[in-house]
Write a structure and sequence with these properties.
single chain, 195 residues, mainly beta, Immunoglobulin-like, 3 domains, four-stranded antiparallel beta sheet, three-stranded antiparallel beta sheet, 0% helix
Length: 195
């Protein structure tokens, strides 16, 4: 009796071969195992910030040998979530508090990213950003409320995950000129340059 070629895959291994006659074995023709952890997630960003919640997003890791299984999110060095998405809504935060977030990627071989300095960010919950729009004015006027800071960076982009610094101010207001002349949706965020 002759059996067809067989393939078996588990935990990152792949073996192929042919069973001939009455032999009870498979001769492996090739195997593959992923020994390298995935690349680090990048550009973490917080949006929809309130006094008690925020949505954290990031750019995905790049993985060549195996797929990304999930991401682990840490708040102040404690694991709070595992998700296959590139965003997470964190609730139950305290007002007027600064939090540090770290994101790690885990691939199908259960290897985790390490040394990801670009996958960390700080969030202060008492800063709230309000976009003021005047339909008769092409400028977007942004105002926000915060206590204890005297300098702010303002970022804007077409995605919460990819933003560009558009200004630095000591006031709690900034105008983005002519941004309302097109039909593009823009996202804004404010942070403390000292963080």
């Amino acid at each position: 009796m002759r059996f067809p070629d067989a393939a078996f895959a588990k935990y990152g291994y792949l073996a192929t071969g042919t069973i001939n006659g009455y032999a009870n074995y498979v001769s492996a023709l090739g195997c593959n195992y992923d020994y390298s952890p995935p690349s680090c997630p990048e550009s973490p960003m917080a949006y929809s910030i309130t006094g008690t919640s925020a949505t954290i997003s990031w750019l995905p890791s790049v993985e060549d040998a195996t797929d990304i299984a999930y991401y682990i999110l840490y708040r102040n060095n404690s694991e709070i979530a595992k998700t296959s998405e590139t965003f997470y809504n964190d609730s139950g935060l305290a007002t007027n508090t600064t939090y540090k977030y770290d994101i790690r990627a885990v691939n199908a071989a259960q290897l985790t990213t390490t040394g990801c300095s670009n996958a960390s960010m700080y969030l202060k919950t008492n800063a709230t950003l309000t976009l003021m729009v005047n339909k008769n004015d092409p400028n977007a006027k942004l105002t926000w409320n915060d206590e204890g800071l005297n300098n702010y960076n303002v970022f804007m982009g077409t995605s919460p995950q990819v933003m560009t610094l558009i200004g630095n101010t000591s006031e709690q207001v900034l105008e983005d000129p002519n941004v309302l002349l097109d039909n593009v949706n823009y996202f804004y965020t404010v942070d403390d340059p000292g963080q």
